[in-house]
Each structure stands twice: as structure tokens, then as C-alpha cells.
């Protein structure tokens, strides 16, 4: 049934009603806040401990490298000493952050099908860490690359305008706007690749491609839903950010409902919830 649902989704055989999704997400907020915020606390705690321990180990190893380097007549610069640990910590942290972030999304997915859920779901998806990391790298190359290129062209356009090359400046600005529009297309299109990896068990690149193919048919409706979610988030910040207690779990629910409406949640619905 999962393959049939995926086939239907990538051919646009579903419908999205943004206001209905928001309304249901608000109703489902009751009963999920403790799991969501508990999971958030676990995310922060684990990431802080992981980074601190890894940093201590790498600094200790760096000190030993300097000592051995001096003994062997090899000069190790302080810049190199700090860059290598930072790079290792930066890359290594994603192998912790991405699976735990997936668990946060899955709390919402469990909630919207009325499946038992709790904060420790954030620890359940570490077996997908490599697929999540590979998909994240590809996502950043595409989306991040377009962002960098668009900003570069915009800055170059301003430079040319100041130099009096107005025709070239206009051309570069148009190119920058085109980059932004393509960025926006992929940003929305790749919205659902994470749950496709952990719930549908797709490989990283296939998850990205499937998300894009499915969202293509109702891109503007899904973009409208994201705009609504952003407006709600901004409004919830205004009264001393107290509204975030409800709005962020609600938006997580909205994301889960969107996923359910497009791809279904058969794999999860047919599993027995493990409390271990």
C-alpha cells in the first residue's frame, strides 16, 4: 500500500486545504506539548553534552599533537589546531542533530494519527543518520548554493550600479531574482524529505526527489500553508513570546498533517509503539 500511496502522491493525486490543516493542527496541539517540549529539552541537552565532550577530546588530542610535533621537528600552527577540531565537531554534530530533529518531526506525525508518543522518540531514528546526513548535504548544495549565488549576484549588481554600469547592474539583479525564485521552489519542494527517510525508509536522494515530485502539483497551496505558518509564528512572538508554547507544537503538527495528506502514514500506523 505504501508504494501505491507514493505513486499516487508523485502524480499529484491528493488535495491540500491550508486553513483546514491549520485548524486540525491547533486541535491536535492538546496532548502533544509535553512530548514536544520534552523532546526539545533532550535535543538541547544531548547536543550540548556531545559537543562539549567531543571538543574536550579533540583539544586534548591537539595538545598531544603539538607536543609530538615539536619532538619530531614538525611545526603545527594554532590556526590548524583549531580548524580541524571545529570541522570535526561541525560535521559530527549533524550525525546527532539530524536524527534527533527527525524524532521531533515524528512526534507530530505520531500525534496526528493519534498514536502514543513521548519525548524519547528523539532517540529512535539514529539508524537513519547516514541517509539523513547525505540528503542534508545534497539539500544544502542545491538550496544553500542558490542562496550564496543569489547574494553574490545582488552584491555584484550593487557594485556595478555604483560604478555607473546600469545595464549590467540590471541584468545581474534580474539573475539574482531568478536565483531567489529557484531557491524558493526547491525550499518548498524539498520540505518533506526527512519523514520520507525515517517513515517511508527511502534513501536520501530518492526522498528528495519524491518530495519534489509530489509537491510540484500543489506547490502554491503548500507555499500558502508555509506563509500562514510563518504569520502565526510571528504573531505568537508578539506577546512576550508566550504564544510560542502553543504555536511551535501546532506548526509541527501542521507539517505532520501535510505529510499525512500527501503520503499517508501506513508504515507507522501498522507498527506497535515500543516504549523501550
Largest sheet: none
Helices, by number, come to: 11
Shape, per Cα inertia axes: globular
Helix content: over 70%
**SSE pattern, N- to C-terminal:** HHHHHHHHHHH
Q: Total number of β-strand segments?
A: 0
Q: What is the rounded distance between the termini?
A: 28 Å
Cα-based radius of gyration, to the nearest Å = 22 Å
**Overall domain count:** 1
Unreliable stretches (pLDDT < 50, length at least 5) are 67-74, 269-276
Strand content: under 5%
Q: What's the rounded overall pLDDT mean?
A: 83
Structural class: mainly alpha
Task: Report a brief summary of the structure.
The chain is mostly helical. It contains eleven helices and no strands.
Outline the fold blueprint.
Elements lengths: L1 H9 L7 H10 L5 H39 L6 H35 L16 H34 L3 H24 L3 H6 L5 H13 L2 H19 L6 H20 L2 H4 L7
Question: Can you offer a commentary on this structure?
Answer:
- This protein has one domain.
- Mean pLDDT is 83; it is low at 67-74 and 269-276.
- The protein contains eleven helices and no strands.
- The chain is 77% helix and 0% strand.
- The relative contact order is 0.16.
- By secondary structure, it is mostly helical.
- α3 (33-71) packs antiparallel against α4, α5 packs antiparallel against α6 and α5 packs across α8 (204-216).
Amino acid at each position: 500500500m505504501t508504494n501505491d500511496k507514493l505513486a499516487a502522491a508523485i502524480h499529484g493525486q491528493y488535495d491540500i486545504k491550508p486553513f483546514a490543516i491549520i485548524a486540525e493542527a491547533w486541535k491536535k496541539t492538546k496532548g502533544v506539548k509535553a512530548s514536544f517540549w520534552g523532546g526539545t529539552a533532550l535535543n538541547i541537552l544531548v547536543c550540548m553534552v556531545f559537543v562539549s565532550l567531543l571538543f574536550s577530546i579533540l583539544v586534548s588530542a591537539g595538545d598531544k599533537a603539538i607536543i609530538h610535533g615539536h619532538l619530531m621537528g614538525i611545526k603545527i600552527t594554532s590556526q590548524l589546531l583549531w580548524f580541524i577540531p571545529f570541522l570535526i565537531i561541525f560535521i559530527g554534530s549533524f550525525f546527532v542533530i539530524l536524527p534527533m530533529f527527525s524524532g521531533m518531526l515524528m512526534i507530530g506525525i505520531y500525534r496526528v494519527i493519534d498514536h502514543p508518543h513521548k519525548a524519547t522518540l528523539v532517540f529512535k531514528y539514529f539508524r537513519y543518520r547516514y541517509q539523513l546526513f547525505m540528503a542534508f548535504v545534497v539539500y544544502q548544495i542545491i538550496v544553500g548554493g542558490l542562496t550564496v549565488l543569489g547574494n553574490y549576484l545582488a552584491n555584484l549588481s550593487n557594485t556595478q550600479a555604483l560604478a555607473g554600469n546600469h545595464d549590467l547592474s540590471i541584468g545581474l539583479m534580474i539573475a539574482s531574482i531568478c536565483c531567489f525564485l529557484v531557491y524558493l521552489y526547491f525550499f518548498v519542494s524539498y520540505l518533506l524529505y526527512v519523514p520520507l527517510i525515517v517513515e517511508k525508509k527511502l534513501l536520501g536522494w530518492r526522498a528528495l526527489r519524491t518530495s519534489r515530485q509530489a509537491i510540484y502539483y500543489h506547490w502554491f497551496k503548500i507555499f500558502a500553508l508555509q506563509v500562514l505558518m510563518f504569520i502565526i509564528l510571528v504573531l505568537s512572538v508578539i506577546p512576550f513570546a508566550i504564544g510560542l508554547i502553543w504555536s511551535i507544537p501546532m506548526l509541527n503538527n501542521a507539517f505532520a498533517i501535510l505529510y499525512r495528506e500527501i503520503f499517508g502514514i501506513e508504515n507507522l500506523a501498522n507498527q506497535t509503539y515500543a516504549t523501550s
